[in-house]
Amino acid sequence: MKERILKSNRNAHYKVKLVVLLVLYFVLAVIVESIIFFSVNEDITSRFVFNGMGFIVFSLIFAPLIILTLIKIMQLRNNFEKYELYNGVITAVNAYKKHTFHHTITILIPSVGVTLQTKVYFGYLYGELKPNTKVEVAYLHTSDEIIILDII
Description:
Helix content: 40-55%
Shape: elongated
Radius of gyration: 21 Å
Structural class: alpha+beta
């Protein structure tokens, strides 16, 4: 189960999101810090003070997004053994806009008797899920979280 969850669409999305956030943070930080450093006409001490303030502000903008993504990855990886494998049927696929990065999928799990919603992100399985398609899912009972693993 661990390997299948690691290969899932959701885990791949979180990893890509984390890499994009980190790259964006470092590239923008270098650009902004360079502009601040070379635009301040004061002595070297005030340049470093302005750079420090810029770094703090920049970190306050990006840190919550990076930390939230890391928490989601850690929650997914720490709950491997708690997920149970079920077969389900997709009852609805909701794409709010034509060019979004995710679809909201409604899945009925007959053996448990629940209907849940989950997101499928751009990438693996993104365009393959249609209503009345049978899927294999990992279901976490404590939080009603569901991960689509594969099409049956």
